Amino acid sequence: MIDHRNFRLIGYKIIDWISEYYENIEQYPVKSLTQPGEIIAALPPLPPAHPETAEMILEDFNKIVMPGITHWQSPNFFAYFPANTSFPSIFAEMLTAALGAQCMIWETSPAATELEELTMKWLRAMTGLPDDFEGVIQDTASTATLCALICARERMTGYRINESGFLDEDRLRVYCSTETHSSIEKAVKIAGYGRRNLVKADVDEVFALDVKDLEKKIGEDLRNGHKPCCVVATLGTTGTTAIDPLPGIAGVCRKYDLWLHVDAAHAGSALILEEYRWMIRGVEQADSVVFNPHKWLFTNFDCSAFFVKDRENLIRTFEILPEYLKTGTRGKVNDYRDWGIQLGRRFRALKLWFVIRSFGVEGLREMLKNHISLAASLEKRIITSENFELMAPRTLNLVCFRFHPAGMNDEEQLNSLNLKLNKKLNESGKIFLTHTKLNGRYVLRMVTGQTNLNAGHIEKAWEMISSFAETVLAEKPVE
Questions:
Q1: How large is the average pLDDT for residues 130-157?
Q2: How far is CA 443 from each of CA 36, 402, 433, rounded to the nearest angstrom?
Q3: CB within 10 Å: which end of the chain, N or C, has fewer?
Q4: What is the pTM of this model?
Q5: Helices marked H in 24-109 — which ranges?
Q6: Tens digit of each residue's pLDDT (9 = 90 or more) over 387-404
Q7: What per-residue confidence (pLDDT) applies to 3?
Q8: pLDDT category, 155, cuts 50, 70, 90?
Q9: DSSP letters spanning 122-185
Q10: What is the DSSP letter of 199?
Q11: Going from the N-terminus, what domains does the chain have, and what CATH number goes with each?
């Protein structure tokens, strides 16, 4: 059993394990190759009746658990969007775990509250958001978006739904594009709007929201007795990192008095670069904004930065004050339990504070610039290749492409070919890519955002993609 007598010795072993893991991370298959049920079958069906040693537990961790891990911190991980970490963030997570603080209100840990207030001000300054936005750390962008939709719902109904629930005459509508993240649809369901009241506007030729179609759909809803309530604009869609046109969307929201929520989960980190501030032109007219430092600012999952213009609306929507949580400091400090869904809150600000101080703003900027440069180099390879083609404009560090051999123009055949290529690459364990579909076409997504990525990893990945593409093309189709 682990107690204060052997904690230090075991702790040193775990630190050594972490250090060796990062030294050798490229030796692991990037994507776990285990089969469904394989992990649970290797473990006892019932818990142990008596204490087991740390050595026994760590042995099973290495032998059974590790083969079932997909290695998000591998520089050969090019899938989804990153969930990055860094050594400063790891150290802070260790301290957070050791403190075990429940940071729901200022009095339960004043430093946690005030450090969160400070780091959110730092992020606001770093990203160029207006000073009238105030921030709070949520776990994920999904939660932040849910908070935004509930705030929009309550503002629209004079906070009546929180008191009385939805009435028959409530036909509130939420708007987004067809490329918006699935978390918006989930939030619409949870917040009580109903999935049928999520209206998806068309996208333009670069997969960004079409403002004219948005306004058209709002007009149709008004004529049909619906109540437009909220628009979700995306900066950096999951499929292609398309940037929805904020100025136009904000104008529509102002015209119809709608809440504007900006989902910049991945791309928001790039706002620390002055040359990407164009993405938030018009953001001063938004009501809420979210982005995830746990995606591209090297801070352990989970850490989502949620900013609102009207803090009183947020607090009025979520506050509740039982007797056992009344304090003498209420109104003098931020009690962040009133700024979101959870009552209990982790000390997430500590890792963000460690990261910003350890890298410095200029250090973070250099890392993001490098990742964007690596994506540009990959983009150039694809454009100059005879057998690959770019499938969407590159905005940041996501490149969307497909294998398109000369003379093959049947779309179903191309989809099948690229599906096979993606599967073969991932089953190799050498790299990990995910896909999307654009206008019915199967498209490979390659994200250059992992913390320790360098040009050599891009070179090896491209060589493998090209080689495997030729192999897949040469294979005879299964009858």
A1: 96
A2: 26, 5, 10
A3: C
A4: 0.94
A5: 38-41, 54-60, 87-99
A6: 999 999 999 999 999 999
A7: 80
A8: very high
A9: HHHHHHT--TT-EEEEES-HHHHHHHHHHHHHHHHTTTHHHHH---TT--EEEEEETTS-HHHH
A10: E
A11: 101-346 (3.40.640.10), 356-474 (3.90.1150.170)
**pLDDT tens digits for 303-328?**
999 999 999 999 999 998 877 788 88
Q: How far is 346 from 367, CA to CA, in rounded Å? A: 27
Measured CA angle at 17 (ends 13, 23), to 5 deg: 145
Strands lying side by side in the sheet with 434-438:
388-390, 398-403, 441-447, 434-438
- CA–CA dist 472, 442 (Å, integer): 15
- State both tokens at 263: 């989902």
Amino acid at position 306, single letter: F
Tracing tokens 């490149």 back to the chain, one arrives at 399
- Of 240-249, 322-331, 412-421, which range is least confident? 322-331
What CA–CA distances, in Å, run from 468 to 26, 402, 428, 432, 441?
A: 20, 13, 10, 13, 20
* 189 has a pLDDT exceeding 90: yes
In terms of C-beta density within 10 A (0-12 exposed, 13-18 middle, 19 or more buried), how is residue 348 classed? buried
Mean pLDDT (whole number) for 74-79: 96
Nearest residue to 355 via CA among 141, 122, 142: 122
What is residue 435's three-state secondary structure?
strand
In angstroms, rounded to a whole number, what is the distance separating the alpha carbons of residues 185 and 188? 5
* Residue 268 to residue 264: CA distance in whole angstroms: 5
Query: Which residues, at least 6 apart from 157, have a Cβ–Cβ distance to it below 8 Å?
Result: 170, 172
Beta bridge partners of 390: 401
